[in-house]
Specification:
Strand order of the largest sheet: 1-5-4-3-2
Structural class: mainly beta
Number of helices: 1
Order of helices and strands: EHEEEE
Shape: globular
Distance between the termini: 10 Å
Number of domains: 1
Oligomer: single chain
Strand content: over 45%
């Protein structure tokens, strides 16, 4: 399986996170406040318990956020 990230709006990301907030958990996170790269980078992937893949993520670089929805595809065999 492959995770492909599709860009979405802050409103769509916010609606998903708001509606499912009580059940969502962090699947992955990166926090670099600039001490390693010289640029701030904060990324968090969110998903539902028991899922194999995250559902949404927010990726902030130097204070500019982008929002993403995961599309899981079956790899060609």
């Amino acid at each position: 399986m492959t995770t492909r990230w599709i860009p979405t709006s802050a409103a769509v990301y916010g609606a998903i996170r708001s509606f499912h907030h009580a059940n969502m958990q962090v699947f992955g996170t990166v926090t670099d406040l600039g001490e390693y790269s010289g640029h701030e980078h904060i990324m968090t992937e969110w998903g539902l318990p028991g899922a194999d893949y995250p559902l949404v993520k927010v990726d902030s670089k130097d204070g500019i956020a982008s929002y993403w929805i995961a599309v899981i595809t079956k790899d060609d065999e």
